[in-house]
Amino acid sequence: MTNGSLALTLAPWSEPLGLDVLHRQNTPELTEHLGGVESAEQVRRRHERYLAMTDGRMFLLMLDGEPAGSVGYWPHAWQGQQVYETGYAVLPEYQGRGLAVRALLLCARRAGHEGELPWLHAFPSVRHDASNAVCRKAGFELVGEVEFEYPPGHPIRSNNWRLALTA
After folding, report:
1. Helix, strand, or coil (residue 118)
2. Which of 36, 78, 126, 140 has the fewest beta carbons closer than 10 A?
3. What residues pair up with 157 in beta bridges, in sequence order?
4. How is domain 2-164 classified at the CATH fold level?
């Protein structure tokens, strides 16, 4: 997907790029709505989980061949049904260019082609204006406010956004 001369693609999660991106995303500003900064060990374990994913996928956002963030989808039991949950983050130096919206749409397309579940949900904090704007601009439907845990054991008030997946 291009925006002018900048080509945005999704690359498979990999070593060592994925670990580097996670460390670069592990800042107070980027984790404010996600439970805060993780320890180096927590980042390493997250990276290993992403490498080992078999049901769902994590991707590196690549902008003209340079890592610019991450996006992914994975199964999540929600209100008695299986759906895909999504998460996304753009590194600070690449923010403000619409990359998160483009990446989320690319991820939704992949989930629709590769996956078997009908819905892709995002659960950003109700206070995270930028993340909620990404969902709205990507065409997600706002279902409403919900109680959500992220990370596990850390309850937050979230918006439940969903997008129907089609192959």
Report:
1. coil
2. 36
3. 147
4. Aminopeptidase (3.40.630)
